[in-house]
Amino acid sequence: MVYKIIFGTDGWRGMIGREYTFDNLRRCAQGFASYHLDKGNSGKKVVVGYDRRFLSKEFAQTVSTVLAANGFKVLLTDDATPTPVISYSVVAYDAIGAVNITASHNPPTDNGFKVRDEFGGAIAPDGLAVIESLIPDNIEDIKDILFAEAVEKGRIELFDSTIKYFPHIEELLDLEPLRNAGFTVVVDAMWGNGSGWFSKLLAGGSTKVIEYHNEINPSFPEMKRPEPIPPNVDAGLEFAKKNNADVVLILDGDSDRVGIGDENGDFINQLRVFGLLAYYLLEVRKMSGPIVKTLSTTKMLNKLGKIYDVPVYETGVGFKYVAPKFMEVDAIIGGEESGGYAFKGNVPERDGLLGGLYFLDMMVKTGLKPTQLLDKLFEEVGEHFYDRIDTIFSGDRQEKIDLIKTAKPESIGGLKVTGLNDSDGFQFYLEDGGWLLIRFSGTEPKIRVYCETTHGDKVQDILKDGLKIAGIE
């Protein structure tokens, strides 16, 4: 039986050696090639990049040979490269899109196949569906060429992605004040692609960058997975305390997401970081324009929208929804609960490097420490509390969906339910303006239960009720 490749919220991921094989990867690459051939893009440039996972470089070379054999000019990164840099390279080199070999925050057993459009953003769901439909069942239907031959003939070219990305960053913000701020910045690269990038960008001044988890180690020691949320961040935060860091920048495995630790080595959850970055653009940089958020992230953004008189648009979960809306409304920031944020002037894609630099710039321009910045935000919108539980489920997915549909709770965690949004999962609105969201992962057999509330003492009760509604407890 032929393994059916299905794209989730951000491309295809699978276990290396099981479904994620060289042959299945070739099938994916051929589907992507056929998609662009049908669009009349024969002979045009495609960017291919990869992360530090097991065999990622070899997987990227395999994708490159299939694309080259189909007549495309392949620009292959000369080293493991952050996803946002790969995305920017699409625009910088006038390419028609990109393929990125990465499983992002997945466990070390996995790898992935991300695709990007001509704007460097996630391909919209209808485009992903077309690519899926064009993936051949038989490897005999795949065009290929030897890697060395493709390089010799100029069909594959290795390139240094820093050449155009670094000047682009300096166009978006002045790095000199950051370099001379005298900060001690700990960067937890989570064994991933972000290793060395902040050190290069901030070199030459009094600011000291200390890197942690910056070697290549595809087993990701000291964490379950390279995802910038607890408990994966705990070792890096403890390291930051020992080094008296002013701030901690935590990048996920492919550096499109960023987590933040404060001057005490405590984690600032990703909803609060989203609120802070939006506040920075609106208040500190005096920008004005729409905000795009997924339904799984903070209502603090809606409050900021009212205060600064800017529209706030809500999408389904995943940048395949955020990116098109971000471009459509010309947003100043777009983001999601997982810690991925896109910014005006950059590509419509998550950029953990730029997000980290903007956070440092906010500290420099305000003269405030991270905890003081949070206080400023809460003065505007009130204190908000968040948590989530991810749990593996077994049994029939549809049965669980039907169970949630019929639940109709009057209260959750002691708060009255005021409405339900079932556009992407099941989001129950609560009387304090908070919410509970129950949603199936698009890439793993998991149910995610999230909540946000203004009542810090009710968070765990809300989550427990969410698990009961989902039939987990």
Structure explained in plain terms:
Helix content is 35%, strand content 21%. The mean pLDDT is 95. It folds into three domains: 12-161, Alpha-D-Glucose-1,6-Bisphosphate, Chain A, domain 3; 173-381, Alpha-D-Glucose-1,6-Bisphosphate, Chain A, domain 3; 385-469, Alpha-D-phosphohexomutase, C-terminal domain (TATA-Binding Protein). The strands form four sheets. Strands 1-5-4-2-3-6 form a six-stranded mixed beta sheet, sandwiched between helices. Strands 16-21-20-19-18-17 form a six-stranded antiparallel beta sheet. α1 runs parallel beside α2, α10 packs parallel to α11 and α10 (270-284) packs across α13 (352-366). With 473 residues, the chain is α/β, with parallel strands linked by helices.
Write the layout of secondary structure elements.
Layout: E1 12-15, H1 22-38, E2 45-50, H2 56-69, E3 73-77, H3 83-92, E4 98-101, E5 110-116, H4 125-133, H5 147-152, E6 156-159, H6 162-172, H7 176-179, E7 184-188, H8 197-201, E8 208-212, H9 234-242, E9 247-251, E10 258-261, E11 267-268, H10 270-284, E12 291-294, H11 300-308, E13 312-315, H12 319-329, E14 333-335, E15 341-343, H13 352-366, H14 370-381, E16 385-392, H15 397-405, E17 411-412, E18 415-421, E19 426-430, E20 435-440, E21 446-453, H16 459-469
Parallel strand pairs: 2-3, 2-4, 3-6, 7-8, 7-9, 12-13, 12-14
Antiparallel strand pairs: 1-5, 4-5, 9-10, 10-11, 14-15, 16-21, 17-18, 18-19, 19-20, 20-21
